[in-house]
Fold these 2 entries.
Entry 1:
Amino acid sequence: MSGSDAQATFIEAAAADTDGVCAAQSVGSATDLTINGALASGGAVTFDQPRNVTILSAGNDSGITFTVTGTDETASAVTETITGANTGTATGTTYFATISQIASSGAAAGNVSVGSGTSIAAPIFRGSMRLIGLYVVNTGTAGTVTFRQTSATGTVRMQFNTVASANTNAYPDIPDEGIRFNAGGYVVYTQTVMSSMTAFHA
């Protein structure tokens, strides 16, 4: 009897951390921010799961930009330029797996902090795969979980809604021999709507 070719990927994302990338710091000119938050190691950040970035400004930074450099959910090099907020939080839309640099285009009006957001794009497997089963743990908030192939912006292959019932389990049904994903499968969701997932694939 031949063995099963099934594999399992566990996906769990930590809560957002508003200063986990860069602790609050003054930015007096066009320069690189110091990556020194709780998530940093050796002047860089590797997130638990690829996610977006937030920039918190204590003053009016709407006239400057912050360019974030790192790698994305596919492990490819990526940059995103985020316009600063006016005494608030500017939220990026690019998914970063790692961050190696954050550059300001000018002096900030007050302290600036950089953190991790709640938008997640978790890799199941970066090569071609078949999704054959799921085990999901819900949170107290319902929301949509989307499965895409190739990248976080690739073709949608499946979606389902979680249930607003903390610590309950769900086993969404995968029909027949599974759903085919070409060049990688990625789970895209908001961190607050799912506690964890085990994705079975072959």
Entry 2:
Amino acid sequence: MLDHISITVADVEKAKAFYEAALKPLGVGVVMSVSAEETGTTGYYGLGEGQKPYLWIAEGPTHSGPMHIALAADARAKVDAFYKAAMAAGAKDNGPPGIRAQYHPTYYGAFVIDPDGHNLEAVCHLPG
């Protein structure tokens, strides 16, 4: 089981604004930040729910190319809202909300490309 994941982005403040807007419909936001002064290198933002960050973003070089990150939604309407919010925040479409039966019959997901080229997905596994 994963506890958290970290990705590097070209502009951490731009990425923070994008992720805050795109993930707000899923109840995800910045719950922790670590300043450049504290790290001695670059600042980080931890996004998550409550007090638990599980998606960290930091400015730096991309080491392995774009990543695919999928976040769970507990309702299909939240997948729809994620897609709409992400597109409004500057994402590129990579697959609008809908059933992806190739994964399983109730896999309802939406895919966008963030400003750094990462494939971001919201998915609901529950029936309609």
